[in-house]
Write a structure and sequence with these properties.
mainly alpha
Length: 257
């Protein structure tokens, strides 16, 4: 049962990241094109496109995959500052009292405690991929030391950046009601548009988020595939012989997938 829960959770994380990328792209289309009418199947097609790209990178780019992930880390750090500077210098800043003592319950929950707990889900979602490193252990040299060290470093770096970015958003959010009522359904797009006053600059900034999340999809798919393969190898997956088999032809693997 634990194995099934782990696989379902890992696949769900991968799917959720790809879906956020798709919805962000759709939000940018709404933002830049006044005549665009968003439909659910549009987001679904964008979602599958993201997954197909992630699959192609994992299969065709497997030999350079470590370099892709290293590049993604560097891009992640650089994009952090690109996202942070407009929030700090261009947005009207809220007071410290509003940020640290104010409480907004716009989710329709009668109890603020429940609203707080539900709101933490999106924060927790940002850290659910930390254990993905463990599923790549068999492909890592000196995994007993490297994997735990990587997990700790990832939590420290991402934790510090997340706290800094969250504070910047809270101080620069402006009118929260306007942000929540944006037609793009992504308040972050409204916040950056308020900061820059330019659709082009806002689109470029949000594209950095899209790129970062797309790279995250690559890693999550790699982690999920290794977990599913290991579970099949241990006879816990349906048709274990088929799923545990490693093909020598990458094209056939992509075709069957």
């Amino acid at each position: 049962m634990l194995g099934w829960i782990s696989i379902f959770a890992r696949l769900s994380v991968c799917a959720s990241i790809a879906f956020v990328v798709a919805k962000l792209v759709q939000g940018l289309l709404i933002f830049n094109t006044g005549s665009y009418q968003p439909l659910d199947w549009h987001a679904t097609m964008l979602y599958w496109m993201v997954l197909l790209i992630a699959m192609a990178v994992n299969i065709l780019g497997i030999k350079i995959f470590p370099h892709i992930e290293s590049g993604a880390f560097i891009i992640h750090i650089c994009f952090f500052f690109a996202l942070l500077v407009p929030l700090v210098y261009l947005t009207p800043q809220s007071s410290a009292q509003y940020v640290f003592t104010g409480f907004e319950n716009a989710g329709g929950w009668e109890d603020n405690g429940i609203s707080w707990c539900v709101g933490l889900l999106s924060t927790a979602w940002s850290f659910v991929g930390i254990d993905g490193t463990t599923h790549m252990s068999e492909e890592v040299k000196d995994s007993a030391n490297v994997v735990p060290r990587s997990m700790v470093i990832a939590v420290i770096i991402s934790g510090v950046l997340t706290v800094a970015f969250s504070l910047a958003i809270l101080f620069g959010i402006g009118d929260i009601n306007l942000a929540l009522q944006t037609p793009t359904h992504f308040p972050i797009i409204h916040i950056y548009h308020t900061a820059t006053g330019s659709k082009g600059a806002t689109t470029a900034i949000i594209c950095t988020l899209v790129t970062t999340l797309a790279f995250a999809t690559f890693g999550e798919l790699a982690s999920a595939s290794r977990l599913a393969w290991a579970f099949a190898r241990d006879k816990g997956f349906p048709f274990p012989t088929y799923f545990a088999h490693v093909s020598i032809c990458g094209f056939l693997v992509m075709l069957w997938t």
